[in-house]
Amino acid sequence: MKFPKGFFWGGAIAANQAEGGYGEGGRGEIISDYTTAGANGVPRQNTYLNEKGELVYVPGLFPDVKPDWKPVTVEGEYYPNRIAVDFYHHYKEDIALLAEMGFTMFRLSICWARIYPDITDETPNQQGIDYYRDIFETCRKYNIEPLVTISHYDDPLCITHKLGGWENRAVADYFEKYVRTIVSEYKDLVKYWLTFNEINSALPRKGSMGNGIESHVASFERLHNRFLASAKAVLAAHEIDPECHVGCMIAIGPSFYPETCKPEDMMAMVEAHQNNFFCSDVQVRGYYPSYTKKMLGQLGIEFNVSQEDAALLKKGKVDFYTFSYYMTNIVSAGSTDELISSKKNPYVKYTDWGWAVDPSGLRFALNLIYDRYQVPIMVVENGLGAVDKLEEDGSVHDPYRIEYHRDHIKEMAKAIEDGVDLRGYTMWGPIDIVSAGTGQMSKRYGFIYVDRDDKGNGTLARSRKDSFWYIQKVYKSNGEELD
Ligand code: BGP
Fold first, then answer.
1. Is 381 a catalytic residue?
2. Tens-digit pLDDT profile for residues 295-337
3. 8-30+78-476 belongs to which CATH class?
4. How far is it, in rounded angstroms, from Cα 158 to Cα 120?
5. Is 391 annotated in the active site?
6. Is the CB of 251 under 6 A from ligand 1?
């Protein structure tokens, strides 16, 4: 197994799932401050008072609410992201542990509301600026390259409640201002940026509407404005620091298999892939793909793009492609909801959360992506969410996690042999953090255990799991010592 010299080995977290520090350092409020804890199979909810003052529970990472609704906390509900794993106060200790494992890259996100508590503010919040500077300097001290996500599921609340949501094009301009601020501030420390985490999670799909306020048309408008914001970010970053690299970030779980070799299922798979690649077709190629009209037409969206917007998308192409990979799924011509069949694949195992563990799907995805775009690629999320048992002596025996990473890393090596230009691997959640989907702490991805439970009890103490020592061996040997 050979990885190229200088291959980046690391892990990834997101501010809202790790930092906590609610109300500290002058940070403004973000959506997840009002997102409750769910459970395995129980969705998280956002709690709001509607225009009549009634309490409403709204699911989703981008809750479908009206601008005049008021986010509120409800007694008896738990809001895990407010403290998360307190990376806000533990980052020095945490980064030292990452360095001990041999990390050469650390993907983390900046919380927009720490830099601009209200995104329309004219000047940035100095405490936020200093906080991230210290993080990046700490990374550099250990020769860890920061990979910074500019927006990772933590939209400031003022986007909805002051500006009316992403359908307001002004939000893209405020995003550009934010990007100009952070790239200017950190250009001596940060050379790799990603615009929007899993931008395709905001793609309107069959059956994807929330509680019916938002239409598919508005939802596409929001996405289009995010594309514009991404293009503006690329141009601004390159203007300020011609040496930096700006990438897109796509959720490629699910990659797809047709349920049968029936020709209709094969076509369903093609459509599922078009869905999957739609956002990166725009961000990497710089224009809406040929199937746009048909895809959006099926959702009742009439597709038009102005010449001015088209020119911006063309100029603001990203430099590299990154993605999250967790699982594969099955598609069939009969399934109406998001094309994905609920059938299980008999050839793979499933996690306790029902995610298919399919290492060879990663090789398949890497080949597919590279054939399509021919730009450098990084896998910036991949991992196993599992329940761990903390032993009395502080150890955690997690052979399942070791096996998971070993098998996926082997498939990456094969993809490199296949000719894919893969530059790095930042697995998801090297330190246990709050799950985005369920709000649980017990869905753990880390090599580092954090003493905190699903109700917020625990000391927040960090300890090394067995997988910590395994990954240290892998990372320090540049992927050669896998067994
Ligand atoms: C991705 C997100 C992450 C992350 C991960 C694991 O979709 O980019 O933020 O959390 O999935 O998902 P979960 O936390 O729901 O297990």
1. yes
2. 999 888 999 999 999 999 999 999 999 999 999 988 888 765 5
3. alpha beta
4. 9
5. no
6. yes
